[in-house]
Design brief:
With about 350 residues, the chain is an alpha/beta fold. It has a domain of about 220 residues: Alpha-Beta Barrel (TIM Barrel), CATH 3.20.20.70. The chain contains eleven helices and twelve strands. A twelve-stranded mixed sheet has the order 7-8-9-6-5-4-3-2-1-10-11-12. The radius of gyration is 19 Å and the shape is globular. The structure holds S-adenosylmethionine and iron/sulfur cluster (2 copies). One iron/sulfur cluster binds next to loops.
Length: about 350
């Protein structure tokens, strides 16, 4: 535990719409080894794209200090993301620090899996419990086309194996976009069912400003369920906890499950308990925010622990974000939004 960081009793804080602060997603780097067309299109994130300089990233000590304040305000779960989080050197050291924070019960990682084989056991030993691995196609050529680099699925499949072997709970995330990979819904379902791994279908979202999102490109939960039901008998599973994002189903003849992240067709803002911390220390209270709160400035300014924790609390108390609900209601404002690769999903 970092010396000098306050450790007071956990004081659950709520936003202006009475939603508790429970989860913190920390982006540890804005760079990525892939160029998924719906997230970091290669035409935009090319050689001349200016990523954050390393000195602008929060250090592990700064992330630990910030996470302690968040834990004091009610955060129990932390998810590390990116960019590609495994590009950040010595990530297990950060996980060790975060695991030691009072109140943190669960640490998870979202990764494209390419470097997971190398790191899985060290991540597990450091305290990581779960990993969500993104895989949008089980067909090699299509995978390469989607992810924009010449890397095929082999390292990802090896990453999945390694994570399971290390004792990490594995889920697979598949963004489904019409015209891109709907052909992969059934093959991916088959693959994950055989492996007894949960597959979560993510509706293509209008995050950022560069992915050319159109409603016509969205395969909704309903579209996907109809397709799956032509082959499998599925039954709905009740949510496990308040604010569970995925709507889950189980195959009737197997313990394998699938889930849907329905931010477009069935928004879930009313139970959204997630705060996001970007790699350079900005707090965002919504995936679709335009602006964040500059926590790095506070962390580097000599403010006391109480003062910084108070700032985070005020940011959360003022939160009124409900972008996806507003999109469904047809009243979402058109605005410049942060990029997904910067905030990490
Ligand atoms: N690089 C890591 C990975 O791909 O898992 C972590 C960061 S990535 C931004 C986190 C998640 O966001 C991935 O599962 C990715 O598929 C998803 N994602 C990115 N852009 C998206 C979009 N426009 N709509 C829906 N999901 C998206
Ligand atoms: Fe990289 Fe993940 Fe975005 Fe793909 S989805 S470009 S792997 S950050
Ligand atoms: Fe949460 Fe914003 Fe997504 Fe709504 S749109 S669920 S408030 S991140």
């Amino acid at each position: 535990m970092r010396e000098g960081t306050i450790l007071k009793e956990i004081n659950q804080t709520f936003d202006a719409l009475k939603r508790p602060l429970r989860d913190l997603r920390i982006s540890v780097i804005d760079r990525c080894n892939l160029r998924c067309q719906y997230c970091m299109p290669a035409e935009i994130f090319g050689d001349s794209y200016e990523f954050l300089p390393m000195e602008e990233l929060l250090t592990f000590d700064e992330i630990e200090r910030a996470a302690t304040f968040f834990a004091n305000l009610g955060v129990e779960k932390i998810r590390l993301t990116g960019g590609e989080p495994l590009l950040r050197k010595n990530l297990p050291q950060l996980i060790e620090k975060l695991s030691a924070i009072k109140g943190i019960k669960d640490i998870a990682l979202t990764s494209n899996g390419v470097y997971l084989k190398k790191h899985a056991s060290a991540l597990k030993a450091a305290g990581l419990k779960r990993v969500n691995i993104s895989l949008d196609s089980i067909e090699d050529e299509l995978f390469k086309k989607i992810t924009g680099r010449k890397i095929g699925i082999k390292p990802v499949l090896e990453g999945i194996e390694a994570a399971e072997k290390a004792g990490l709970e594995v889920k697979i995330n598949m963004v489904v976009k019409k015209g891109m990979n709907e052909s992969q819904i059934l093959p991916m379902a088959e693959f994950c069912k055989d492996k007894n791994v949960t597959l979560r279908f993510i509706e293509f979202m209008d995050v950022g400003n560069t992915n050319g999102w159109k409603l016509d490109h969205v395969m909704t939960k309903q579209d996907i369920l109809e397709l799956l039901s032509s082959k499998y008998a599925l039954e709905a599973v009740d949510p496990d906890y308040y604010g569970e994002v995925a709507k889950r189903y189980r195959y009737s003849n197997s313990s394998a499950q699938i889930g849907f992240i329905t931010s477009v067709s069935e928004s879930f803002c009313s139970t959204c308990t997630r705060a996001r911390l970007s790699a350079n220390g900005q707090i965002y209270t919504c995936l679709f925010s335009s602006e964040g709160f500059d926590l790095r400035k506070s962390l580097r300014s000599g403010l006391t622990d109480e003062e910084i924790q108070g700032q985070i609390e005020s940011v959360w108390n003022l939160r009124r974000d409900r972008y996806s609900d507003e999109r469904v209601e047809g009243i979402a404002e058109r605005k410049t939004k942060i990029e997904m690769s910067y905030i990490g999903g």
